[in-house]
Specification:
By secondary structure, the chain is α+β, with helices and mostly antiparallel strands. It contains 12 helices and 24 strands. A hairpin with a 4-residue loop joins strand 13 and strand 14.
Length: 626
């Protein structure tokens, strides 16, 4: 090995030391820069043409754990989902108020039943009548307020979807742009390292909003996919979310896969090839803040609204519904006659029969549905009772035909009862096979006047209209009822009707029949509640008093908020742990950099000393030749 070769090798060492020093300086300077990944010099050994070998710094290498990074992004999406769920459910608890506190549904219901109890003790007292009506108004107003609170949350969440979609589009565009700028650059190029830091930071931010799976190819291009397989970024091309606001939402504004029927903001994704896809209908997103917002808007808060709507419906129908048992029919086949003359849209014929083959008792609810667009009614599997919709305004002959077509598989038969029964009386029997036994038939109708001569009365109304539970093509009358429920204006104009249920003969001032009825209805009477409330099931609907139902759904929402907070805390710990693991490799460690600096300093000094020695040896050689 000649002196020239040694000098060249030492100079190469100095250049590598200078490059390493520059990288250490960059690491130290960016030790607090978010997203910066520690860089190390990439050095290669070069043959010098003689003895030994030289060195060359070809670029930098980013020091990170790809597996931990992938896990961190997955859990970051989970954290984005958990944070939003906990945040909104906590706000929902604020809408409900503290249990037992002033201005809550529980307190208002308790005040109302207490007022009814006082009225029952003195039904003719005008002051007691007014207090009871005032308590009823306060309860209705609290239901209105609760609905406003829930729908405000839904509106806010809907708008947040649009804001998050715009942010996601920004990040996806950034990632695609960086992919384009990285084309042609070596992965070890210092400029490439900076761009990759920026790209990783954009992917990390995107993962807070949607679930992200990153795939890096041999040309250092990142492709992003959701867990459902939808591509978000491919090379220099990015998909984009397209959001269209629906404005302020109400209880009837719900998601539908048919855009013409949907009442909420639409969220589609436009793929690089120009195709458009409904994000909700195709389950494009499964985690992240946007997924949480979609679930809150279309499921969680809708169910919360259904729960208060069911409470409002039970209060309305509990006071106004009158159930009349059918008249038994002797002979073969045996059955019951029921008068359908007072059945309004939403009112029902209730049928109980026994399947003699299986000894199973079953229930059927025949609902008066005037809007043909709502037919046939949809039943969940094993629904009990089974719902059958029939338009009673189409004439009794048509009603009988529709019912026989629907009940034939149940071995039941319906006919118009013979005289002297009225033409609106139906007879329900088995079909003559002996495979079914009709146990009971009744009608449930809505009493329309406070002075109909019965204890029932339309105490609560749907705005200015009767609440009957009507079903139309646009949905059930129950939807949003909590926001519209009010006290009957006829009672407000004449509070005495809260006690007076008959004018001929007139109700005595001491008659507590109606007040007793109302008190029992709202304290001890059991009602059945829709499975759509999230309580009970289609096969075994929840049954209980108004108070117990209210406590159950308030408790359920409280538990959901508690679980969401626990999930948020747990997810925060997971993300924090993974971030620490990732940072242990990727984040700049000042102590390590100082140690590296000393090594570079020593190496630099050694290379410089070699150059000094070579120079001295060359001078000695030259002097010897003179």
């Amino acid at each position: 090995m000649g002196l020239g070769s040694a000098l060249a090798t030492a100079m190469a060492g100095l250049r590598s030391n200078q490059a390493a020093l520059s990288i250490i300086s960059s690491n130290v300077a960016n030790s607090q820069t978010p997203g910066y990944v520690t860089q190390n010099p990439t050095q290669v050994e070069l043959a010098s043409g003689g003895y030994g070998s030289s060195v060359q710094t070809t670029g930098v290498n980013r020091q990170l754990d790809i597996f931990i990074q992938s896990q961190l992004r997955t859990e970051t999406s989970g954290a984005g989902y958990a944070n939003q769920m906990a945040n909104i459910l906590s706000q929902l608890q604020t809408v409900y108020g503290n249990p037992g506190g002033d201005g809550t549904l529980e307190t208002m219901l308790s005040n109302f039943t207490s007022a009814l109890q006082s009225l029952s003790s003195n039904p003719g007292d005008q002051s007691a009548q007014k207090v009871a009506l005032s308590a009823a108004q306060s309860l209705a107003a609290q239901l209105n307020t609760t609905t406003q609170g829930i729908q405000t949350l839904r509106t806010n969440v809907d708008q947040d979807i649009g804001n998050s979609a715009a942010q996601a589009n920004t990040y996806m565009s950034q990632i695609a742009d960086i992919n384009s700028r990285l084309q042609g650059l070596s992965p070890t190029d210092p400029m490439a390292a900076t761009l990759m830091d920026q790209r990783d930071n954009a992917v990390n931010e995107l993962s807070k909003l949607v679930d992200v799976r990153a795939v890096t190819d041999s040309s250092n291009q990142v492709s992003l996919f959701t867990n459902s397989g939808i591509q978000l970024v491919g090379g220099g091309l990015a998909s984009s979310f397209v959001y269209s606001s629906a404005g302020v939402l109400n209880a009837n504004a719900q998601y539908d896969s048919n855009p013409t029927k949907s009442g909420v903001g639409s969220l589609n994704i436009r793929l690089p090839n120009g195709a458009n896809m409904d994000v909700v209908a195709n389950n494009v997103i499964s985690s992240g803040q946007i997924a949480a917002d979609l679930k809150l808007r279309d499921q969680t808060l809708v169910q919360a609204q259904t729960q208060v709507d069911q409470l409002a419906a039970t209060l309305s129908s509990g006071a106004s519904d009158q159930t009349t048992a059918g008249t038994p029919v002797a002979g073969t086949p045996a059955g019951f006659d029921v008068d359908t003359s007072n059945i309004l849209p939403g009112n029902t014929i209730n049928l109980t029969y026994t399947d003699t083959a299986t000894k199973t008792q079953r229930q059927i609810s025949i609902v008066n549905v005037k809007d043909p667009a709502a037919l046939p009614l949809q039943n969940a599997a094993n629904a009990n009772p089974q719902m059958i919709g029939v338009d009673f305004s189409a004439g009794m002959g048509t009603v009988v035909s529709q019912l026989n077509a629907a009940l034939g598989s149940n071995n039941l038969h319906v006919s118009i009862a013979p005289p002297p029964a009225s033409g609106s009386t139906l007879r329900v029997t088995d079909d003559g096979t002996g495979n079914a036994t009709v146990n009971a038939v009744s009608t449930t109708t809505t009493v329309q006047s406070p002075t109909a001569g019965v204890p029932q009365l339309p105490l609560f109304t749907d705005g200015a209209s009767l609440y009957t539970g009507a079903i139309s093509g646009s949905g059930s009358q129950m939807t949003g009822l909590a926001g519209r429920i009010s006290v009957n204006t006829a009672l407000l104009a004449d509070p005495s009707k809260l006690s007076t249920y008959s004018t001929s003969p007139p109700t005595a001032a001491s008659d507590n029949t109606r007040s007793d009825f109302l008190f029992k209805q709202f304290t001890t009477a059991n009602f059945s509640y829709s499975p759509q409330t999230g309580l009970g099931s289609a096969a075994a609907p929840l049954k209980g008093t108004v108070g117990s139902y209210l406590q159950q759904f308030i408790s359920q929402q409280g538990n959901a908020s508690t679980l969401a907070n626990q999930l948020q805390q747990g997810q925060s710990v997971v993300v924090s742990t993974l971030q620490q693991k990732f940072d242990s490799t990727a984040k700049v460690n000042i102590d390590t950099e100082m140690s590296n600096l000393i090594q570079v300093q020593n190496s630099y000094a050694a290379n410089a000393h070699i150059m000094s020695v070579v120079q001295s040896m060359m001078q000695t050689l030259l002097q010897a030749q003179l």
